From TrEMBL:
Record carries keyword Protein transport: no
GO biological process terms on file: cell adhesion; zinc ion transport
Record key words, sorted: Ion transport, Signal, Transport, Zinc, Zinc transport
Record InterPro entries: AdhesinB, Bact_metal-bind_prot9, Calycin, Lipoprotein_PsaA-like, ZinT_dom, ZnuA-like
Name of protein: Zinc ABC transporter substrate-binding protein AdcA
Region (Disordered): 305-324
Gene source species: Enterococcus florum
Record Pfam families: ZinT, ZnuA
Amino acid sequence: MKKMLTWVGLLLIAGVLSACGTEKAAEKNEELTVVASFYPMYDFTKNIVGEEGTVELLVPAGTDSHDFEPSARDINKIQEADAFVYNDENMEMWVSDVADSLKQENVTMIKATKDLLLLPASDEHEHDHGEEGHHHELDPHVWLAPSLAMKEVEAIRDQLSEVYPEHAAIFSKNAQSYLEKLAALDQQYTEALSQAKQKSFVTQHAAFSYLALEYGLNQVPISGVSAEEEPSPARLAELKHFVETNGIEYIYFEQNAKSTVADTLADEANIKTAILNPLEGLTEKQMKAGEDYLSIMENNLKELRKTTDTENPNEKNLTPEKEKSVYNGYFKDEEVQKRPLSDWAGQWQSVYPYLQDGTFDQVMSYKAKKDPSKTVEEYKQYYETGYQTDVQEIEIKGSTITFVFEDGTEKSAEYQATGYEILKYSAGNRGVRFLFEAKEDTGAFKYIQFSDHGIHPAKSGHFHLYYGNHSQAELLKEMGHWPTYYPKKLSGKTIAQEMLAH
């Protein structure tokens, strides 16, 4: 509540500042003015806009963009601009608080991640902001992979061009020139890291998940280590054991570690420190020296190669193992409980059309990068077989299930629970199917089975449905075909984003 009142106050002050200034319409009749939230957005936008307008940086040089909260003057600065470019609400978490006021001032909001799906955030990504701490639900650090930075540049270019068509040709030309430089940077990363002698790197700030995924690396974040403060004797002992067990030579910080910290880590734990710059805010010195996204990312690659160009016989210890959770199919028989049909009550839609129309293409791409045992096309074919169905929608109300087919016909029946079956899979994990049977013959499926990674009563967020008319035993043999349903109210992109979270 206190934070909400603070924002209301800031917006009121910003409104007064705006009223005290020159009429915005008069200011806009000359050149285009764009405000960009933090450094990568500023550099990307500046390379697109060029001489067609002025691009201003909102977050001051040297300021951690995670900790930034705009003042009334900052909000007024955005309100006076033609357009505001930002990365994503999971980075600039204050954007949703000012969106309405910017809309009222006719400020065009440009979201760089507009067409991208985001990875789930790690537990390490928590930042305190005043009395109310918050965390990123999704990982916003897309720009740290050059291949994805290119997609952000394209998104900014396209959105600016749509709103300002009179500048579109120049935007396109400028962007193309910059994209060629980013493509060359991407090629440098690809060539260097595809030959990595070890793929795991240890970082104090878990900002490099996209970089790791795009270039086949494994980011290993560790907590309790700061570039500013010496670790406690207990933490030093833990770090010493960690590096000796796992063959670690470098720990990457986001800034230069103080000499005392570096010396302590070197002397007591035999750890070298290096820098991976997350580009969340350049210093004034860096900006005056002409450093930019390209130069810093080139240096990041140079620093990464201190690790990736060196073999590590203990690297296998750092390979992440699949969590043995209930969701992933690890549980005890006695933990399983019967479930009522109400667990799946609601209106549901098949995800099959989204696989067909390309909405899930990014999901398939992420899967192929995370587990290269299949190509993107092979993953698509796997899910084509799994998702295929002519049951487009399902409504579950009380004991009645209504199936809506792709030709528009509907079939309904009342169902009763007949228990559950625990299945063992070839991978070593298990699953539970909850069985239901139609009370009478109405033309709807006689037998159905729900599977949603749950093992006891709880409201389902999505489910796989097995259905047929022969027998429950026959359905239990089905392993390759599992039509999947999500709430009808969700968009295809929202469902795709949910899939990445699992």
